[in-house]
Q: What sequence folds into this?
């Protein structure tokens, strides 16, 4: 069966290209005024999952910018954990005394979203959505220790989009282990397996969270939520589903090639394994990108061009890497080289020449 790859959306690529520059945030008229205050709170020095807290906040804001979200939602992404929350003990603004300071900085609407995102149970919110417990009016009822709280439709839509961006920016196998079965987080501590806690671990991509993100995206099509926010351009405009089994299979197949569990002297086996990974999960770029390189190495330039275009489309749709071993902009850069070489020819015949590849204007 012929493998089908998405074509590259030129407008989406143009938006993504503008965000490849590390200084993009400093030039953003809506987010730049907030940046100095956030940086002054030491976010560039705090650890956070696959990088620093600054990397995380900026990465979430980058996806939301790529997804053309309104100002208040993008500010929520940039500030989404600054009051701390149940999973991140990084209180950069004291919610008891500094809400007025943040309100003055970003406005009442954006600050209220940040506050609610920090104090409400994220795990329970995700559980409610996955259970289909969105009311007819688009609200979600949370039953917390402090009482019953209702998130209104506009808040639910914002939390869905930001939760998707938050998850794709940070989640990899280390969190699959330490937050096993999220959002079904145990009320009592789970049994401790310290071998699984050695950060950052093998840095295998998550085998379970894209399935959840697809379901969160689908929830944006709820009749009371539809049209409240631009739909992220992932999972075919949040219309497609991804089963847990397909995600797990795709991750396992991809990682078997990355770990060189498949023979690479002859490329047919590794190529077939990656093709199957893409069939299971066509919504991420990394398997398609590696497949493009295998195609190029085998002299299959036309197939490589299609696979590289498909990979670039997925990278531009997410604005963050699924495979966290290198940063998003590095994945994009290498994919562009593969695409250019597939179109123009000239893939190196010597291994050492790979080190000399550069994108030509």
A:
């Amino acid at each position: 069966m012929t493998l089908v790859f998405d074509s590259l959306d030129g407008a989406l690529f143009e938006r993504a290209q503008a965000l490849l520059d590390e200084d993009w945030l400093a030039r953003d008229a809506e987010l730049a005024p907030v940046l100095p205050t956030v940086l002054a709170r030491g976010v560039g020095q705090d650890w956070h999952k696959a990088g620093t807290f600054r990397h995380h906040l900026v990465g979430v804001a980058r996806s939301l910018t790529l997804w053309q979200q309104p100002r208040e939602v993008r500010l929520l992404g940039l500030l989404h954990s600054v009051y701390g929350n149940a999973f991140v003990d990084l209180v950069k603004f004291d919610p008891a005394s500094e809400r007025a300071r943040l309100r003055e900085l970003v406005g009442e609407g954006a600050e209220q979203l940040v506050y609610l995102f920090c104090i409400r149970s994220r795990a329970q919110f995700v559980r409610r959505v996955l259970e289909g417990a969105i009311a007819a009016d688009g609200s979600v009822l949370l039953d917390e220790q402090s009482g019953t709280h209702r998130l209104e439709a506009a808040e639910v839509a914002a939390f869905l989009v930001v939760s998707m961006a938050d998850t794709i920016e940070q989640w990899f196998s280390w969190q699959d282990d330490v937050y096993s079965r999220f959002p079904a987080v145990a009320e009592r501590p789970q049994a401790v397996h310290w071998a699984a806690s050695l950060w950052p671990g093998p840095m295998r991509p998550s085998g379970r969270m894209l399935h959840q993100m697809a379901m969160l995206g689908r929830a944006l099509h709820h009749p009371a939520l539809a049209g409240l926010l631009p739909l992220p351009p992932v999972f075919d405009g949040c219309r497609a589903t991804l089963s847990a089994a397909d995600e797990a299979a795709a991750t396992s197949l991809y990682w078997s090639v990355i770990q060189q569990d498949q023979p690479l002297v002859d490329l047919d086996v590794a190529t077939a394994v990656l093709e199957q990974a893409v069939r299971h999960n066509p919504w991420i770029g990394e398997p398609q990108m590696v497949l493009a390189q295998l195609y190029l190495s085998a002299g299959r330039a036309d197939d490589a061009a299609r696979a590289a275009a498909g990979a670039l489309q997925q990278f531009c749709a997410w604005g963050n890497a699924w495979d966290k071993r290198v940063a998003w902009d590095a994945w994009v850069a290498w994919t562009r080289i593969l695409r250019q070489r597939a179109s123009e020819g000239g893939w190196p015949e010597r291994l050492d020449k790979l080190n000399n590849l550069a994108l030509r204007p």
In short: Strands lie at 47-48, 51-52, 140-144, 147-151. The domain at 31-234 is CATH 1.10.3210 (Hypothetical protein af1432). The first helix runs from residue 10 to 18. DSSP finds 16 helices and four strands in the chain.
